[in-house]
Amino acid sequence: MSGSGRFRGGEVEGGGEFVHFKVAQLTMPSPAFIATGGWSAVELLDYAEVGTWGRAVAGILTVRARVKPCDGPSIPAMLVVVCNLGPAGISTGLAEGYTLTLPGGTTFSPFGAGLTLFTRPCEDEDD
Length: 127
Fold this sequence. Notes:
Number of domains: 1
Radius of gyration: 16 Å
Strand content: over 45%
Helix content: under 10%
Number of strands: 8
Distance between the termini: 25 Å
Shape: globular
Mean pLDDT: 89
Largest sheet: 8 strands, antiparallel
């Protein structure tokens, strides 16, 4: 899963792409391919900032999202993004990365593979 976006003043925008496959069945070429498509942020639910280091920010972002497989209907989802700042020693206490939860409790979280970065604009930048 990849993506980028912005959030400010209770508003959120953003999105990206995903590829869904079963790692346990991974061979080359992989017969474990399930779906691919895009996702978009719909609503900012929560943001907890833990600390800053320059323009980088450690925190936890929670948004309501929509997942849209290329060959299927749109699916509502909950997306939690965690950003830690290892070089600065600033941690949220959670693992770096994301957790995507679909209806019925199906959860995706790339164990040990997440890489996130929250930044804030310089003080003299409008956006």
